[in-house]
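Summary for the steering committee. One of the milestones for this cycle was to obtain a three-dimensional model of the protein with zinc ion bound, which we needed before selecting residues for the alanine scan. The sequence and ligand used are listed below.
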Amino acid sequence: MCASTNSVLCRSCGKKLEENPQFLPKHRSPCPNCGSTTRIFNVEIHGTITLREKLSLKHKRPGFKKPIYEEVSGDDLHRKTGLWSKLRRVIDRQNNHYKEEVVNSETGKVLRSVDHPLTDHTGRGSAKEVGRKGEDDA
Ligand SMILES: [Zn+2]
């Protein structure tokens, strides 16, 4: 076997960190970008990296019930087909913008592309469903 841990990423923000992967959590320094001490270890096996990760971001502001900005990006498993795809979904409440793109990880083919005012999206009654995992069928 020639697997080796060769890089360390921040689990919260994805920043690559210069850190010894052997470090225990209590010995880690907080991520300089976001302060998190959770990590992803990128293990390389025979030169092929397969890293399935999904990151989400919510930007909250005092006085606003809902986050003013939400973004989800990363790998998404389509349950029906069992295929992995790349998902990116942005909800920008300040600019009334909803965007979603799903791309087949293997072929790069765009499976779904949505880009319209958020108010149109809310009108369909599905805005509250945003944040559910793995169900991207309209
Ligand atoms: Zn971080």
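Key point for the committee: The pocket of zinc ion is lined by residues 10, 12-13, 15, 31, 33-34, 36 (CB under 6 Å).
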